[in-house]
Write a structure and sequence with these properties.
Elements lengths: L2 H23 L9 E2 H8 L3 H14 L2 E5 L2 E4 L1 H9 L2 H10 L1 H5 L1 H5 L10 H4 L1 H30 L5 E5 L5 H9 L4 E6 L1 H10 L4 E3 L13 E7 L7 H13 L1 E11 L13 H7 L8 H11 L1 E5 L7 E7 L1
Parallel strand pairs: 4-5, 4-7, 5-6, 7-8
Antiparallel strand pairs: 1-3, 2-3, 8-10, 9-10
Helix pairs in contact: 1-3, 1-5, 2-3, 5-9, 9-10, 9-11
């Protein structure tokens, strides 16, 4: 592929993304059987011409295909990935963030502020979608990272806290790795309510920056997956300091996050999104973390994984 073709494909991808997000929002990609455009439009109260145009574009993308007599069906492989692997939750969540991307030029001209996640505190349906979206992506990352940590660390943590853990991707990965451990999730707002209904791991409800919600308990392992990067620098220090205070004598903090200093390209997938919605750019400076470790007597150990988000273990010296 030439550079010109590559750039054109990227530009057209903007339109393709909008078409896919729209198809996800109206439920078209969840259709279990073949359908006619007119029937689908009537069932959803949508424009018949609009649905026909959308389906034609999706057919060109290979997402749906014609089966004759005006009938279409969603590509079975696409549907398996969307529904079977829960990628559809991630796409539904991303569709809610589309406005932030379409106003990127306005943001650069100081005419539009970055997106706010205040809805996490008071919009339960959207919070549920957000938590499910992250869980669909982070579940595999959590299992891989915890398996690597268990092999490298060789310690049996008795108490584990998944800070800002959403539905508990890391908490449940830890539960599989260390079945006898006492595990909890720390979350706030509507996400905490969703997490309580999701599984059997208890949820500590409150803001991670608030010292009061940490209580008196000491934890052998504290996990922070993409918790620090959305915070400003002062809040990052506060949150890490709380974790340090509530760490047991031989405990460790596992950070799984995006770092500006890393050479891997995974941030193009998630970090760019965080750059749009976060006030801080959505990434951490590795030198900042090294300074924190030096000031607080921690060893910084990077796990072997080369993928982003990067897993880094902070262990007391």
């Amino acid at each position: 592929m030439s550079t010109k073709e590559y750039l054109l494909n990227l530009a057209l991808g903007y339109q393709a993304s909008q078409a896919i997000f729209t198809a996800v929002k109206i439920g078209l990609l969840e259709q279990p059987e073949s359908f006619e455009c007119e029937w689908f439009a009537d069932a959803k109260g949508l424009s018949k011409d609009g649905v026909a145009r959308l389906v034609l574009f999706l057919e060109r993308l290979g997402i749906v295909k014609s089966v004759g007599n005006g009938q279409y069906i969603v590509n079975s492989e696409v549907q398996q990935i969307l529904i079977g692997e829960r990628l559809i939750d991630f796409l539904k969540h991303q569709s809610n963030c589309w406005e932030n991307w379409t106003q990127l030029d306005a943001m650069l001209n100081h005419k539009h502020s970055r997106g706010s996640q205040a809805w996490l505190a008071n919009d339960l349906p959207r919070a549920k979608l957000f938590a499910s979206a992250l869980h669909s992506i982070s579940g595999a990352i959590a299992k891989r990272t915890i398996a690597e940590l268990k092999e490298m660390w060789r310690l049996q943590p008795r108490t584990i806290l998944d800070v800002g853990g959403g539905l508990g991707s890391f908490a449940y990965a830890c539960q599989q790795a260390w079945e006898q451990s006492d595990i909890a999730i720390m979350e706030q707002g509507c996400v905490a309510e969703v997490a309580k209904d999701y599984g059997n791991i208890p949820v500590i409800e409150g803001d991670v920056r608030d010292e009061k919600i940490w209580g008196e308990k000491k934890w052998d392992l504290i996990v922070m997956s993409q918790i620090l990067s959305p915070l400003d620098i002062s809040d990052r220090n506060i949150t890490l300091s709380h974790a340090k205070t509530h760490l047991s004598q031989n405990g460790a903090i596992l950070l799984v996050d995006f770092f500006d200093d890393s050479s891997t390209l995974g941030s193009a997938r998630f970090g760019l999104h965080m750059w749009i919605v976060s006030e801080t750019g959505g990434t951490l400076k590795l030198n900042w973390l090294k300074q924190f470790c030096a000031e607080n007597n921690f060893r910084l150990i990077r796990l072997c994984s080369s993928e982003e988000p990067l897993p880094i273990l902070l262990q007391k010296k």
